[in-house]
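#data-curation
PF: Archiving a pair of folding outputs for the training set. Convention for this channel: one message per protein, sequence first, structure tokens after, nothing in between. First:
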Amino acid sequence: MQSVMEEKQHIGQLFDRIAPTYDGLNHGLSLNIDRRWRRMTVAKMMPVRHVLDVAIGTADLTIEMLRRGKAEYVTGIDLSDQMMEIGERKVERLKLQEVNFIHGNAQQMPFEDASFDAVTCAFGCRNFSNLDEGLREMYRVLKPGGQVTILEFSYPTRRYIRVLYDFYFTHVLPTIGRLVSRDKTAYTYLNKSVKSFCWGEAFAQRLHDAGFVDEHFEPVTFGIATIYVASKR
């Protein structure tokens, strides 16, 4: 069985495999709570001109920020071409012309320093093979005074919630994910990647170490996910 780190080396291929069923499974298995999390994340953003959406995937966060007037234009980067193809179709269907999809690695982004007014990332940071490199890249491409806003899974602190969470993530989600996506490893990886990832104060400290300031965070839905916000001086 591959370790989480080994699976991260091929993360683009993993998401290519599950792309056709990704949105339906995400919304269904979360009872659409993930949509609410994205709305809450976008609500914390300041309106700007040009946003970089790291790990744009199927573009749900990008669409939400454009709908709510938080960005005039979005550049999205991702390692999964299949996920971005679905995102492009959604953007076209909604007649949003302000999105550019780029295949690329978040840890080695093909952008000049200080290129973007804001940076976002939803459920992508835990997939970086090197989190610190990814956060430093976000800092590098962000303009001084710009804001980074990150939505990521975390771990509930309340004991009874954690017990239910562990059962769901260990048994229910991988089983349904495997049956629907027909991929034996993807949703097992999700469970392992969440449990092995840092969250709360530990993640905020990683933002600080990357150079960001004024970092703060808000756990949502009993701490199942957390929204992080920080700035670049």
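PF: Second:
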Amino acid sequence: MQHRSLFVFDIETVPDTDAVPNLTGLTDPDVEARRAELEHYHLEVTDGRNAFPRQPFHKVVAISFLEAEIAPDGAQETYHLRELRSGGEETYDEARLLQGFFAYFERLKPRLVSFNGRGFDLPVLKYRAMLHGVQAPYLYGAGDKWNTYTQRYASDWHCDLMEVLSDHGASARVKLNEVCAVMGFPGKFGLDGSKVAEHFDAGDLKGIRDYCETDVLNTYLVYLRWRLHTGVLSRDGYNRAVGEVVALIQAEGEARPHLAGFMEAWGEASGNRFTL
């Protein structure tokens, strides 16, 4: 299948404290006590190695994405940026957020692009969709045995950059921020993942979504550089795609200050050299 759209996505989550009574028996209603209990449980089951909750125990509080058109260019491709935005409404509702994500995915039928999306983002989305009874038949039914969203090595269907850049674990799996540091992209700045729960408790959904959108931009920039490296994207095509990102930020940076901040951090990281 020739996909016509790229869908670069990222999620932000907070621990699912609602599951704690069923998991450990702790009935204390205090959110912080339940979060501590969830960490304690995961330290126990990992012999003290990791307190980070496993995928089912995350509430999805933000889903951000970048959509780009895929245009064939002989044996290569070109990408044309359509939009960068976040799902959800002003009031948090996880079920509606997931319904919106999967409904849009089913309509778009895109090539997915993520960073650790196979290991974290998609599994979390699947578990939470199951919790809320949200269906996603196209995710499982599209393609064939070797070309499908659920086939680990089908990067034309779901390109998890953390996987493909490490040759699926043949070399170390690195962090997005580490790749960005080498490539001259902004990487993490401002809010970071460890502060998402704090901002969520304060009702700052917008701040979380803004942060998530900058991660999506970083992921897209890394994807463009990888496609250039593999020969799927020409140097001119790469520079045009990067130019469209710059143009988006210039057009919307005043109304969306996190994009202006991204551009400033990008300039600092790259010596104000954005194209090749």
